[in-house]
## 1
Amino acid sequence: MLNLEQTKELYDFLRGESEVNIKSNKGVEFEINKSKFYTKKSHLPRMTDEQAFLVIYLLQEAYNFEDFIPDHYEICSQCGELYDSELEGGTTGDEMYCGDCYTEEENED
Ligand SMILES: [Zn+2]
Protein backbone atom coordinates (compact mmCIF):
# COMPACT_ATOMS: atom_id res chain seq x y z
CA MET A 1 0.00 0.00 0.00
CA LEU A 2 1.23 3.49 -0.73
CA ASN A 3 1.59 5.76 2.26
CA LEU A 4 0.64 9.42 2.02
CA GLU A 5 4.22 10.52 1.31
CA GLN A 6 4.50 8.10 -1.62
CA THR A 7 1.14 9.20 -3.00
CA LYS A 8 2.24 12.83 -2.71
CA GLU A 9 5.44 11.92 -4.55
CA LEU A 10 3.38 10.53 -7.44
CA TYR A 11 1.04 13.53 -7.30
CA ASP A 12 3.99 15.94 -7.43
CA PHE A 13 5.53 14.00 -10.31
CA LEU A 14 2.30 14.25 -12.33
CA ARG A 15 2.22 18.00 -11.65
CA GLY A 16 5.83 18.40 -12.82
CA GLU A 17 7.03 19.29 -9.35
CA SER A 18 9.54 16.47 -8.83
CA GLU A 19 13.17 17.43 -8.57
CA VAL A 20 14.98 16.41 -11.72
CA ASN A 21 18.66 16.33 -12.59
CA ILE A 22 19.49 17.53 -16.07
CA LYS A 23 21.65 14.84 -17.66
CA SER A 24 22.01 16.10 -21.22
CA ASN A 25 20.33 18.46 -23.67
CA LYS A 26 17.04 16.61 -23.49
CA GLY A 27 17.55 13.93 -20.84
CA VAL A 28 16.63 14.17 -17.20
CA GLU A 29 16.92 11.84 -14.25
CA PHE A 30 14.47 11.80 -11.37
CA GLU A 31 13.78 9.68 -8.32
CA ILE A 32 10.49 8.03 -7.40
CA ASN A 33 10.21 5.83 -4.32
CA LYS A 34 14.02 5.69 -4.06
CA SER A 35 14.41 4.37 -7.62
CA LYS A 36 16.05 6.46 -10.28
CA PHE A 37 14.42 6.91 -13.69
CA TYR A 38 15.65 8.52 -16.86
CA THR A 39 13.49 10.14 -19.51
CA LYS A 40 13.35 12.96 -21.99
CA LYS A 41 12.57 16.32 -20.46
CA SER A 42 9.66 16.71 -22.90
CA HIS A 43 8.09 13.51 -21.55
CA LEU A 44 7.66 14.82 -18.02
CA PRO A 45 3.99 15.52 -17.24
CA ARG A 46 2.83 18.99 -16.25
CA MET A 47 -0.71 18.38 -15.08
CA THR A 48 -2.85 20.75 -13.07
CA ASP A 49 -3.75 19.76 -9.49
CA GLU A 50 -7.12 18.52 -10.73
CA GLN A 51 -5.69 16.48 -13.62
CA ALA A 52 -3.08 14.85 -11.38
CA PHE A 53 -5.63 13.99 -8.72
CA LEU A 54 -7.96 12.57 -11.39
CA VAL A 55 -5.27 10.01 -12.29
CA ILE A 56 -4.88 9.05 -8.62
CA TYR A 57 -8.65 8.96 -8.21
CA LEU A 58 -8.97 6.57 -11.18
CA LEU A 59 -6.34 4.28 -9.68
CA GLN A 60 -8.28 4.33 -6.41
CA GLU A 61 -11.78 3.92 -7.81
CA ALA A 62 -11.82 2.57 -11.38
CA TYR A 63 -9.27 -0.19 -10.80
CA ASN A 64 -10.24 -0.90 -7.22
CA PHE A 65 -6.79 0.04 -6.07
CA GLU A 66 -8.01 1.18 -2.64
CA ASP A 67 -5.54 -1.29 -1.19
CA PHE A 68 -2.81 0.27 -3.30
CA ILE A 69 -3.68 3.94 -2.84
CA PRO A 70 -6.12 4.32 0.08
CA ASP A 71 -9.31 6.10 -1.00
CA HIS A 72 -9.17 8.41 2.02
CA TYR A 73 -6.26 10.31 0.48
CA GLU A 74 -7.98 13.43 -0.82
CA ILE A 75 -7.09 16.69 -2.52
CA CYS A 76 -7.66 19.87 -0.52
CA SER A 77 -10.08 22.25 -2.26
CA GLN A 78 -8.13 25.23 -0.99
CA CYS A 79 -4.39 24.55 -1.21
CA GLY A 80 -4.43 21.64 -3.69
CA GLU A 81 -2.25 19.41 -1.52
CA LEU A 82 -2.98 15.77 -0.74
CA TYR A 83 -3.93 14.82 2.78
CA ASP A 84 -5.26 11.82 4.70
CA SER A 85 -8.94 12.53 5.36
CA GLU A 86 -9.02 9.87 8.08
CA LEU A 87 -6.44 11.78 10.11
CA GLU A 88 -7.07 15.43 9.40
CA GLY A 89 -9.23 17.99 7.66
CA GLY A 90 -12.94 18.03 7.07
CA THR A 91 -15.78 18.68 4.65
CA THR A 92 -17.85 21.80 4.07
CA GLY A 93 -20.64 21.13 1.59
CA ASP A 94 -18.97 19.56 -1.48
CA GLU A 95 -15.54 20.94 -0.60
CA MET A 96 -12.87 18.95 1.22
CA TYR A 97 -10.10 20.64 3.16
CA CYS A 98 -6.82 19.46 4.63
CA GLY A 99 -6.08 19.95 8.32
CA ASP A 100 -4.40 23.33 7.83
CA CYS A 101 -7.10 24.84 5.61
CA TYR A 102 -10.03 23.37 7.56
CA THR A 103 -8.79 24.88 10.81
CA GLU A 104 -8.34 28.26 9.10
CA GLU A 105 -11.92 28.09 7.85
CA GLU A 106 -13.21 27.45 11.35
CA ASN A 107 -11.19 30.30 12.85
CA GLU A 108 -12.17 32.84 10.21
CA ASP A 109 -14.34 34.97 12.47
ZN1 LIG B 1 -5.30 22.69 2.31
## 2
Amino acid sequence: MSRAQLVTASKHAEHCQRNWDRSQSMPREDVQALVDIATTMPSKQNEEYFQLVVSVNSQLNRLIYDLSIDPDNPATLHRNAQLDAHAVFVWFLHKPEQLNMTDKKNRAGFFDVFRLNAKTAIGISSGAVALSACHMGYRTGYNQCFKAYELRDLMIEWGITNLSDEKNTPELALGVGIPQADTPWNHVLDDEGNLRKIVDTESKNIRWDIIE
Ligand SMILES: Cc1cc2nc3c(=O)[nH]c(=O)nc-3n(C[C@H](O)[C@H](O)[C@H](O)COP(=O)(O)O)c2cc1C
Protein backbone atom coordinates (compact mmCIF):
# COMPACT_ATOMS: atom_id res chain seq x y z
CA MET A 1 0.00 0.00 0.00
CA SER A 2 1.78 3.15 -1.15
CA ARG A 3 1.37 6.64 0.24
CA ALA A 4 0.10 7.83 -3.13
CA GLN A 5 -2.54 5.09 -3.25
CA LEU A 6 -3.79 6.04 0.20
CA VAL A 7 -4.07 9.71 -0.74
CA THR A 8 -5.93 8.76 -3.92
CA ALA A 9 -8.30 6.61 -1.86
CA SER A 10 -8.94 9.56 0.44
CA LYS A 11 -9.71 11.79 -2.53
CA HIS A 12 -12.24 9.25 -3.75
CA ALA A 13 -13.76 8.97 -0.27
CA GLU A 14 -14.19 12.75 -0.15
CA HIS A 15 -16.83 12.64 -2.86
CA CYS A 16 -20.27 11.20 -2.48
CA GLN A 17 -20.84 8.36 -4.98
CA ARG A 18 -24.47 8.37 -6.16
CA ASN A 19 -24.61 5.72 -8.90
CA TRP A 20 -23.74 2.05 -8.91
CA ASP A 21 -22.99 -0.73 -11.38
CA ARG A 22 -25.62 -3.33 -10.54
CA SER A 23 -24.19 -5.85 -13.00
CA GLN A 24 -21.34 -6.44 -10.53
CA SER A 25 -21.34 -7.60 -6.94
CA MET A 26 -19.05 -7.17 -3.95
CA PRO A 27 -17.31 -10.31 -2.66
CA ARG A 28 -18.54 -11.17 0.83
CA GLU A 29 -14.92 -11.28 2.07
CA ASP A 30 -14.54 -7.59 1.23
CA VAL A 31 -17.74 -6.73 3.11
CA GLN A 32 -16.53 -8.75 6.10
CA ALA A 33 -13.15 -7.00 6.08
CA LEU A 34 -14.93 -3.63 6.18
CA VAL A 35 -17.12 -4.85 9.06
CA ASP A 36 -13.98 -5.94 10.93
CA ILE A 37 -12.43 -2.51 10.36
CA ALA A 38 -15.61 -0.71 11.44
CA THR A 39 -15.83 -2.65 14.67
CA THR A 40 -12.19 -2.55 15.76
CA MET A 41 -11.24 1.08 15.25
CA PRO A 42 -10.68 2.86 18.57
CA SER A 43 -13.41 4.23 20.79
CA LYS A 44 -12.92 6.00 24.10
CA GLN A 45 -12.00 3.37 26.69
CA ASN A 46 -13.12 0.82 24.14
CA GLU A 47 -16.77 1.40 25.01
CA GLU A 48 -19.34 -0.06 22.63
CA TYR A 49 -20.92 3.25 21.72
CA PHE A 50 -22.59 2.04 18.58
CA GLN A 51 -24.07 -0.95 16.87
CA LEU A 52 -23.47 -1.57 13.18
CA VAL A 53 -25.97 -2.95 10.70
CA VAL A 54 -24.75 -3.74 7.19
CA SER A 55 -27.17 -4.61 4.43
CA VAL A 56 -26.00 -6.29 1.23
CA ASN A 57 -29.60 -6.97 0.25
CA SER A 58 -30.50 -4.84 -2.79
CA GLN A 59 -34.21 -4.95 -1.95
CA LEU A 60 -33.58 -3.63 1.55
CA ASN A 61 -31.09 -1.07 0.28
CA ARG A 62 -33.74 0.32 -2.06
CA LEU A 63 -36.08 0.68 0.91
CA ILE A 64 -33.32 2.47 2.85
CA TYR A 65 -32.83 4.81 -0.12
CA ASP A 66 -36.57 5.50 -0.18
CA LEU A 67 -36.37 6.54 3.50
CA SER A 68 -33.35 8.76 2.87
CA ILE A 69 -35.30 11.94 2.50
CA ASP A 70 -36.19 15.00 4.50
CA PRO A 71 -39.98 15.28 4.16
CA ASP A 72 -39.69 19.07 4.58
CA ASN A 73 -37.18 19.37 1.73
CA PRO A 74 -38.41 18.16 -1.69
CA ALA A 75 -34.86 18.53 -3.06
CA THR A 76 -33.86 15.43 -1.07
CA LEU A 77 -36.21 13.21 -3.11
CA HIS A 78 -34.11 10.81 -5.26
CA ARG A 79 -30.96 12.58 -4.05
CA ASN A 80 -29.42 10.15 -1.60
CA ALA A 81 -28.75 7.31 -4.02
CA GLN A 82 -25.45 6.78 -2.18
CA LEU A 83 -27.52 4.38 -0.03
CA ASP A 84 -28.83 2.42 -3.00
CA ALA A 85 -25.37 0.84 -3.03
CA HIS A 86 -24.09 -2.74 -2.98
CA ALA A 87 -23.45 -2.57 0.77
CA VAL A 88 -25.06 -0.11 3.14
CA PHE A 89 -23.48 0.47 6.56
CA VAL A 90 -25.69 2.04 9.24
CA TRP A 91 -24.29 3.07 12.62
CA PHE A 92 -26.85 3.07 15.43
CA LEU A 93 -26.38 4.52 18.88
CA HIS A 94 -26.04 1.73 21.39
CA LYS A 95 -28.30 2.34 24.35
CA PRO A 96 -26.16 3.34 27.36
CA GLU A 97 -28.25 1.39 29.88
CA GLN A 98 -27.41 -1.78 28.00
CA LEU A 99 -23.81 -1.11 29.06
CA ASN A 100 -24.50 0.17 32.58
CA MET A 101 -23.77 3.65 31.30
CA THR A 102 -25.80 6.80 31.62
CA ASP A 103 -25.84 9.81 29.34
CA LYS A 104 -23.16 11.39 31.58
CA LYS A 105 -21.24 8.42 33.01
CA ASN A 106 -19.14 5.69 31.47
CA ARG A 107 -19.11 2.02 32.43
CA ALA A 108 -16.59 2.73 35.20
CA GLY A 109 -18.88 5.39 36.66
CA PHE A 110 -16.79 8.40 35.63
CA PHE A 111 -18.03 11.55 33.91
CA ASP A 112 -18.27 11.03 30.16
CA VAL A 113 -20.72 12.48 27.68
CA PHE A 114 -22.24 9.54 25.88
CA ARG A 115 -23.49 11.27 22.78
CA LEU A 116 -20.26 13.12 22.06
CA ASN A 117 -18.18 9.98 22.46
CA ALA A 118 -20.65 7.92 20.44
CA LYS A 119 -20.58 10.40 17.57
CA THR A 120 -16.79 10.49 17.69
CA ALA A 121 -16.59 6.68 17.67
CA ILE A 122 -18.96 6.51 14.70
CA GLY A 123 -16.90 9.11 12.87
CA ILE A 124 -13.67 7.20 13.45
CA SER A 125 -15.25 3.87 12.49
CA SER A 126 -16.98 5.13 9.38
CA GLY A 127 -13.94 7.11 8.20
CA ALA A 128 -11.81 4.00 8.34
CA VAL A 129 -14.44 2.07 6.39
CA ALA A 130 -14.68 4.77 3.72
CA LEU A 131 -10.91 5.05 3.28
CA SER A 132 -10.40 1.28 3.27
CA ALA A 133 -13.24 0.68 0.84
CA CYS A 134 -11.89 3.27 -1.58
CA HIS A 135 -8.43 1.78 -1.22
CA MET A 136 -9.95 -1.59 -2.18
CA GLY A 137 -11.26 0.04 -5.36
CA TYR A 138 -14.81 0.73 -4.27
CA ARG A 139 -16.53 4.10 -3.97
CA THR A 140 -18.46 5.40 -1.00
CA GLY A 141 -21.13 7.94 -0.14
CA TYR A 142 -22.18 9.17 3.28
CA ASN A 143 -25.71 10.06 4.24
CA GLN A 144 -27.23 11.55 7.35
CA CYS A 145 -30.56 12.49 5.84
CA PHE A 146 -33.10 9.80 6.62
CA LYS A 147 -36.33 9.24 8.50
CA ALA A 148 -34.53 7.89 11.55
CA TYR A 149 -37.33 6.10 13.37
CA GLU A 150 -38.67 4.56 10.17
CA LEU A 151 -35.18 3.39 9.28
CA ARG A 152 -34.80 1.79 12.70
CA ASP A 153 -38.22 0.12 12.37
CA LEU A 154 -37.22 -1.18 8.94
CA MET A 155 -34.12 -2.82 10.41
CA ILE A 156 -36.22 -4.40 13.15
CA GLU A 157 -38.61 -5.66 10.47
CA TRP A 158 -35.62 -7.22 8.70
CA GLY A 159 -34.50 -9.09 11.80
CA ILE A 160 -32.30 -6.76 13.88
CA THR A 161 -34.52 -7.10 16.91
CA ASN A 162 -32.45 -5.40 19.61
CA LEU A 163 -32.94 -1.88 18.27
CA SER A 164 -36.30 -1.35 19.89
CA ASP A 165 -35.29 1.27 22.47
CA GLU A 166 -35.92 4.80 21.31
CA LYS A 167 -32.26 5.62 22.06
CA ASN A 168 -31.13 3.20 19.36
CA THR A 169 -31.26 5.84 16.67
CA PRO A 170 -29.42 5.54 13.38
CA GLU A 171 -26.81 8.30 13.32
CA LEU A 172 -24.91 7.83 10.09
CA ALA A 173 -25.01 5.70 6.96
CA LEU A 174 -22.45 4.92 4.27
CA GLY A 175 -23.05 3.31 0.90
CA VAL A 176 -20.17 1.21 -0.46
CA GLY A 177 -19.99 -0.34 -3.89
CA ILE A 178 -18.88 -0.43 -7.48
CA PRO A 179 -19.56 2.80 -9.37
CA GLN A 180 -21.21 3.02 -12.77
CA ALA A 181 -18.41 3.31 -15.33
CA ASP A 182 -17.95 6.60 -17.20
CA THR A 183 -20.48 8.38 -15.02
CA PRO A 184 -19.64 11.32 -12.74
CA TRP A 185 -20.06 10.44 -9.08
CA ASN A 186 -22.79 13.02 -8.52
CA HIS A 187 -25.18 11.75 -11.20
CA VAL A 188 -28.23 9.91 -9.92
CA LEU A 189 -29.58 7.38 -12.45
CA ASP A 190 -32.89 5.55 -12.64
CA ASP A 191 -33.09 1.77 -13.05
CA GLU A 192 -32.87 2.10 -16.84
CA GLY A 193 -29.65 4.11 -16.53
CA ASN A 194 -31.27 7.41 -17.47
CA LEU A 195 -30.08 10.54 -15.72
CA ARG A 196 -32.48 11.40 -12.93
CA LYS A 197 -30.63 14.15 -11.09
CA ILE A 198 -27.28 15.91 -10.93
CA VAL A 199 -26.44 16.77 -7.33
CA ASP A 200 -24.38 19.90 -6.75
CA THR A 201 -20.92 19.07 -5.46
CA GLU A 202 -19.14 20.80 -2.61
CA SER A 203 -15.42 21.41 -2.22
CA LYS A 204 -13.27 22.28 0.77
CA ASN A 205 -9.84 23.60 1.50
CA ILE A 206 -9.00 22.84 5.10
CA ARG A 207 -6.07 24.80 6.46
CA TRP A 208 -3.19 22.69 7.66
CA ASP A 209 0.19 23.48 9.20
CA ILE A 210 3.14 21.26 10.08
CA ILE A 211 5.35 22.51 12.89
CA GLU A 212 8.96 21.33 12.56
C1 LIG B 1 -21.07 12.91 8.08
C2 LIG B 1 -21.53 13.15 6.67
C3 LIG B 1 -22.87 13.27 6.41
C4 LIG B 1 -23.33 13.47 5.11
N1 LIG B 1 -24.66 13.54 4.86
C5 LIG B 1 -25.10 13.75 3.61
C6 LIG B 1 -26.48 13.83 3.36
O1 LIG B 1 -27.30 13.70 4.26
N2 LIG B 1 -26.89 14.04 2.09
C7 LIG B 1 -26.00 14.18 1.07
O2 LIG B 1 -26.42 14.36 -0.06
N3 LIG B 1 -24.67 14.08 1.28
C8 LIG B 1 -24.20 13.87 2.53
N4 LIG B 1 -22.86 13.75 2.77
C9 LIG B 1 -21.92 13.80 1.63
C10 LIG B 1 -21.14 15.09 1.58
O3 LIG B 1 -22.03 16.13 1.34
C11 LIG B 1 -20.07 14.95 0.51
O4 LIG B 1 -19.13 14.02 0.97
C12 LIG B 1 -19.38 16.25 0.19
O5 LIG B 1 -20.32 17.16 -0.27
C13 LIG B 1 -18.32 16.11 -0.88
O6 LIG B 1 -18.78 15.28 -1.92
P1 LIG B 1 -19.26 15.82 -3.36
O7 LIG B 1 -18.03 16.12 -4.12
O8 LIG B 1 -20.03 14.69 -3.92
O9 LIG B 1 -20.10 17.03 -3.12
C14 LIG B 1 -22.40 13.57 4.06
C15 LIG B 1 -21.03 13.44 4.33
C16 LIG B 1 -20.60 13.23 5.62
C17 LIG B 1 -19.12 13.07 5.87
